[in-house]
Design brief:
2 copies of one chain form a homodimer. The first copy, chain A, has 14 helices and 11 strands. In chain A, 45% of the residues lie in helices and 15% in strands. Chain A has helices at residues 31-38, 54-66, 85-97, 112-124, 138-144, 182-199, 201-209, 211-214, 221-241, 256-265, 273-290, 296-309, 321-329, 358-367, and strands at 10-12, 19-23, 44-48, 71-75, 105-110, 130-135, 152-154, 157-161, 169-172, 340-346, 349-355. Chains A and B meet through helix 3 and strand 8 of A and helix 3, strand 7 and strand 8 of B.
Chain lengths: 370, 370
């Protein structure tokens, strides 16, 4: 990774739907001028969560108002269990009460749930109006803020309903990360490191060199902006190559085949997303070893990087390899019951769509007990 | 309009999202091979209405099954008041129970409501899966079958939620029109004639020459296929020029500014959509006369064509010009309370986005009392 490159936005090049990502400490203060310049909307609604994030929602609404955009604030209850059609429906009613028309904008200020629900509402209100995103968790900044995926859960499963709706702009203010719990902070860090693992060995070195600035106890906002920025560049390059998920975008799922099974086994409470993915990345390396694809020194680097950050790398006590394997077979992305894996040939060099036989997966998971 | 040109499908050219429209008597019998050839889905769900249309839904499901596509039938309650988020939600559950995945297809067999609701479900299930449409009313064949608009109503208003989701294929079987009520049949005919008024004076001549074959009492399926086909060609050409409704697509709203107000004033029960649009087209001609845009002989042709078909051309008793004008001001498409009109300079030559002063509109509506 090159030296620090200032605060020029990252361009996500999707033709007519291109947009910029700003990643900088305090950039939420610029939201008024950015939205005015890029969208020039008739009105705005800021959608935010409840709790600590609300003050950032208010801040954004104030800045939009000051820029001359009539703005109202709508709150969603925080938490994955409120990522429902009912929440979207409540937003529609609030958007209508606020008088949003086809030239208005929805601004999401919050974590992944707020972004997914507000983005889906924006993508379907009057067949789609402008959407601006200001993710306030490290997980959402590293991951959910790029890609255009929006949607909600159904009782039958997660993210079963949604649309691709690209934002007009994304603002990632790393000062908002100060109030996250250490676990949530590390959950996002897992996705950032994942981007380094799959695409950029230099970025991995930079992350390791700057580990103290990125430590949960310190959270240097400038270093975080650099990390988030590079993470977004990597994800944006992959998304641009494959906007609707036909192929190469699969590499972003490194660690997620096992990770999703672990999250689901723990009923989405025992492990954070990042913790599950961290364990899943090490397991994927071991599956790669079993198949002769991943060199053992790569596994070692992945494992040690994650451990030094403070992320788990072994199956939690009580999660048995057989149960994990069974859950993977049931994953909706498994074609005819055979899970597919993203594996590393080298740091920064993934292969995707690899099928592994059940015996190799089980051996790898056995080795992931510690 | 050229002489009858056989049953080659009409191509709607939207780049990667291009698709064909088949319009022919009995073409619903080919749905199995068409869907197999074009989509080759893992499974299908046929969404249909209740009542007379159900047999066409069953027919389509049988043909799909015979083509080797595992298919289930889902029924929506018929009627505009069931065009709701709740109906979409029920479809999601049915689609999940049927095991639809990202490579599956939703086939809508029914009128406009079935197409709009099923299309929205298809456009949002797992962020969008394939959709095939077989409209079975003349209104849906003439109008709703082209354009990619899908969606539902909210308590606050019609079509406030939706997505653009283009079908992979459209089948318009004119034999399904035999069981429509005469009023519903004529409602669709109003849209077909509208397409002739705004784009094709030769087609208008053809319609007038073939009036006896198109009479509600006769409904010659071959002549109807020709009429529907040409109507779709006209609409498709306009939609291709303006996929997401920024400009020229507005010409399709000829007669609709006044028409929507009349429908709303009659609580969507007193007048069919086509009846309201027929009255609205004559009113638009008179507004055009007031503004010096529409020659009076154009108004006369529009009025006489509609009357000869059996459509109304005057405001129904009790609908006062002032009340109609007030409703137009409240229309969601009116920018800052000023309704915009599509007016005819000549047959086949519309202008759009025309603002008219309230006095001219009132004078024109006064003349529309008879």
């Amino acid at each position: 990774m090159a030296q620090e490159t200032g605060n020029a936005p990252v361009r996500v090049d999707l033709g007519e739907r291109s947009y910029d990502i700003w990643a900088a400490p305090g950039c939420l203060n610029q939201i008024g001028e950015i939205v005015l310049h890029i969208v020039n909307p008739t009105r705005a609604v800021v959608v935010t969560g409840t709790g600590a994030v609300e003050r950032y929602g208010r801040l954004a609404a104030d800045r939009l108002d000051e820029a001359g955009i009539p703005t109202e604030l709508l709150r969603l209850r925080s938490g994955e269990r409120y990522k429902t059609l009912r929440a979207v429906e409540r937003l529609y009613h609030g958007m209508l009460r606020s008088g949003l028309d086809r030239k208005s904008v929805v601004v999401a200020v919050g974590g992944g749930v707020v972004g997914d629900v507000a983005g889906f509402a924006a993508g379907t209100y009057m067949r789609g109006i402008s959407f601006v995103q200001a993710p306030t968790t490290l997980l959402a900044q590293a991951d959910a803020g790029v890609g255009g995926k929006t949607g909600v859960n159904l009782p039958e499963g997660k993210n079963l309903v949604g649309v691709f709706h690209q934002p007009r702009a994304v603002l990632m203010d790393t000062e908002t990360l100060a109030t996250l719990s250490a676990r949530d902070y590390l959950s996002g860090m897992a996705e950032i490191v994942k981007h380094a693992f799959i695409r950029d060995a230099d970025f991995l070195d930079w992350l390791r060199w700057n580990a103290d600035r990125l430590d949960p106890a310190r959270r240097d906002a400038a270093a975080l902006a650099q990390a988030v920025r590079r993470s977004c560049e990597i994800k944006a390059a992959v998304v641009v190559a494959d906007e609707t998920e036909a192929g190469i975008r699969a590499v972003l799922n490194f660690g997620h085949t096992v990770g999703h099974a672990l999250e689901s086994l723990g009923s989405y409470r025992r492990l954070t997303h990042g913790e599950a993915v961290a364990i899943g990345m090490v397991a994927a390396c071991r599956i790669g070893e079993e198949l002769g694809i991943t060199p053992s020194n790569v596994t070692m680097t992945v494992r040690e990087t994650l451990r030094s950050i403070g992320l788990p790398t072994a199956l939690p006590p009580g999660m048995e390899p057989e149960a994990v394997a069974r859950h993977m077979m049931a994953d909706k992305k498994a074609t005819s019951g055979r899970p597919r894996f993203v594996l590393l040939q080298e740091l920064g060099q993934p292969v995707y769509g690899v099928e592994a036989d059940a015996a190799a997966v089980l051996r790898a998971l056995e080795r992931s007990r510690e």
